[in-house]
Q: What sequence folds into this?
């Protein structure tokens, strides 16, 4: 097995320890592998969709003042049928969007959201 060195914030370390505890894992390395496997499954789920896709996109983003999400929403306005924005604690925001989109377009939208690195949570729930 390869050894990889990574830099993590205190918040990342706490999350890693939470994963380890929640799943009863022996150590942080197992927690990292579990998190990687969960991300792989999510990526595969997105690759497996095709055609017209409908569902709900849920995002928790860190900074209300940062306009990055509004820019993405404007770019994909045709795919967003309904949208709810709610302010949370610590300047975070909850975005809930009903999406009706071609799979490729949805995949592009999700890639852009993830690439920003400014969302604490992103989940598409397919109908």
A:
């Amino acid at each position: 097995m390869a050894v990889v060195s990574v830099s993590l914030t205190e918040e990342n370390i706490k999350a890693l320890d939470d994963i380890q505890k929640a799943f009863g894992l022996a150590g942080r390395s197992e927690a990292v592998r579990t998190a990687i496997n969960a991300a792989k499954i999510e990526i595969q789920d997105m690759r497996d969709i095709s055609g017209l896709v409908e569902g709900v996109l849920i995002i928790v983003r860190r900074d209300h003042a940062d306009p990055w999400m509004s820019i993405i929403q404007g770019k994909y306005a045709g795919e967003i049928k309904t949208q709810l924005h709610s302010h949370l604690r610590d300047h975070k925001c909850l975005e809930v969007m009903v999406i009706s989109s071609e799979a490729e377009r949805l995949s592009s939208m999700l890639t852009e959201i993830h690439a920003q690195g400014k969302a604490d949570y992103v989940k598409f729930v397919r109908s």
About this structure: The chain has a mean pLDDT of 93. The helical segments are 10-22, 28-48, 68-75, 103-116.
